[in-house]
Amino acid sequence: MPSTTAKKHSTSRAYWTGFADGTPFLLVVAPFAMLFGVLATEAGLNVLETLSFSAVVFAGAAQFTALQLMQENAPTAIVLASALAVNLRVAMYSASLTPWIGAAPLWQRALAAYFTVDQSYACSIVQFEKEPQMTVPQRMAYFSGVLSPIVPLWYICTVLGALVGTQIPDNWALDFALPITFLALVAPMLRTAAHVIAALVAIVVSLLSAGVPYSLGLIIAGTIGMMAGAQAEVWLERKRSGP
Amino acid sequence: MIDQTTLWTVIVGLGIGSYALRFAFLGIVGDRPMPAWLLRHLRYTAVAILPALVAPQVVWPAATGGDPDMPRMAAAAVTLVVGLLTKNVLAAILSGAGTLFGLLWVMG
């Protein structure tokens, strides 16, 4: 059955494409996870507690937020609400991935939900839009490929950070690994005027709303950017089909 | 020192909450058709939220205590321009990182 072989072949190719696309993120994830390990230890958590935190929550930015607020003795409800607000963007990622992988079996979607993070989302959406002819199993293979190098390192480096407990030298400027990677991913996605408008509006609103507490500025900026993009799309289509 | 009850309440609560956020659409909506207006908005999720996530870090980096920093802004600009011109993610990352380290090194 040549067709089955071809299909199998392209599923494994999708996995390895994802693996290759996920690998550069090791440079971002490793220091980020180590830093969490270091800070958690400094806050008085032991290695097991630190690893449980990373494994159960699996959301870097939200973990840093929760840790910070717990150290400030904020009420538990405030800690939870703030960290979840920081993480609200993953609900948008989940929604954005649904048209592409919503037809996968429930157990796969349940797993994918746990693993929906900035890196897996960003790589996948770029790939799915670039090659819309991919099948759902190929998309799931690609998604898990992206995660394969990242996830083990996330756990390992959290533990390393907790064990070593030393600061990463500031002059490595690793704080900027994340912005550079995300900008590099977004730039090729700016294919139409509507995409550019969405990005510009989101950037302006996020800078204006930087003072809004609990990182809600990000959600406001993202939502307004999406609305601007969608509106621009409607407007541009109308203009094209008009007189 | 963080007390044990608070810590585990936060770990478990945040774990469930974060998972629910991610499962909401993928798990519950699944392959049921979504309205056109919603799909139209979702097409712009990535290009809106990812730049919004990094914009404040580019303009007011935490590493400099929030003071605008020329090497970081230049690195962001180079990354964006190379990404737009070449459509190559790795080329954009490398030129952005090169710009950042080059300028930090030159400026001592």
Automatic annotation (TrEMBL), chain A:
Keywords: Cell membrane, Membrane, Transmembrane, Transmembrane helix, Transport. One of its GO terms (cellular component) is plasma membrane. This is Branched-chain amino acid transporter AzlC. InterPro entries: Brnchd-chn_aa_trnsp_permease. It is a multi-pass membrane protein. GO terms for biological process: L-valine transmembrane transport. It comes from Roseobacter cerasinus. It is found in: Cell membrane. The chain crosses the membrane at residues 14-39, 51-70, 77-101, 140-164, 176-208, 214-236. Belongs to the AzlC family.
From TrEMBL, chain B:
Keywords: Membrane, Transmembrane, Transmembrane helix. The chain crosses the membrane at residues 6-30, 42-63, 75-106. InterPro entries: Brnchd-chn_aa_trnsp_AzlD (IPR008407). This is Membrane protein. It comes from Roseobacter cerasinus.
